DUF4174 domain-containing protein (Salegentibacter agarivorans), 126 residues
Amino acid sequence: MNLNAQDLSKHQWKDRLILIVAEQKNEKFQQQLTELQKHQQGLNERKLVIYQILPEKYTTGFEEENWKNSSELFQKYKAEKSDFRVILIGLDGGEKLEQTEVLSAEKLFNTIDSMPMRQAEIRKNK
């Protein structure tokens, strides 16, 4: 069943994705959610969709319900030597940023804002 890869590919050319991948809901996982929640407007402006990914399930956004049972995304994106990983996936579906520490909204937004497609969006929206 290739449901999850399909789930992510439906975002290509429409949304940027933040994948928050953790072995369990740990401190970094919660800190990352809190950091991103404080910057909703910036997330929306940059067309960011949040995926919370745990070993047996995942959900989108900041909801605590609507979890889907599946381990496929976790298996694909989990960190080799860390119990936490955050990944930015661009509009083209490629990984643009990946780290095993909590990602600041500032670093996230600066990374996205330096991308050619985002520069074009900014020019178009002026």
Observations:
- Strands lie at 16-22, 48-54, 57-60, 68-69, 84-89, 95-99.
- The chain is about 40% helix and 25% strand.
